[in-house]
Specification:
globular, 15 strands
Length: about 325
Amino acid sequence: MSDIQIYNTPIVNKDFKGLRIDKFLAACFPDISRSQIQRMIAWGNVVCDDVTVGDNSYKIKEGESFVLTLPEAVDAEPRPQDIPLDIVYEDKDIIVVNKPCGMVVHPAPGAANGTLVNALLYHCHDLSGIGGVKRPGIVHRIDKDTSGLLVAAKNDNAHKLLCEQFAEHSIERTYFAFVFGMPNPADGTIEGSIGRSPYDRKKMAIVAKGGKHAVTHYQTVEKFRDKAALIKCRLETGRTHQIRVHMTFAGHSLIGDKVYGKGRKLIVKNAPEEVTAFVNSFPRQALHAQSLGFVHPVTGEKMFFEASLPADLQELLQVLRQI
């Protein structure tokens, strides 16, 4: 297959509730064989709100929708690679890592090597297989250019129970984001259903119908005159690109976001030119997964982890303070 094809299902209604995922996808996409759909599920190419659905017998729920990706041909299995990991916590069931900006979470077309999965396979030797051949152990994802905390499962039981917490939105996740402008009110909540943009299928957007309910709570941590702000976002839901989409919708796109904030510039009268140049050329979306809280899938213990801003965002913070 020469290029990636992405298929989005409609939202599950009560008539389909309880149906096997492979049967549902086969009904949605009659041009794809059921055996091919089953392979895509086994390989981790079906997701619901960034959570992999790797079991063909999974019973779908009302209100869910799924994204099926038919990828370009890549190596059948990711190989272990000796890539350094910033390990925050590890035991026999789970591992929590602080992912650097620039690292892809799992192999995909154009990124078959050097991913978090390649590093985890080398470090752990074995991971949960529920995520599929391409995504062993992967329970949730953050974007390549977003830094911060991510948990992976080492066995199938841990994977299943962590996925249930993500599906129930009981996972505690907060992010630091640097945005253009000053949010008004300074602390608040943004609600808006998120779905594929009708104008650009590679982007997500606030949509009137066909999307998924999404809620982001934010608070302003520091403001830089009225030109930019550091905000802390708590996700009540976990939709694809949720913070980036919600903040752009509110008029405060993330600094460095080439997809949702394209063309946005910092303009400050009398500010040093090197300050505005640094901010306007920042090479990635200024977003960091700062904290992660969940119940340990085996022991039942409440776990909570934090990761401070990485060096590039620390530098951005210091530069913004100069305006």
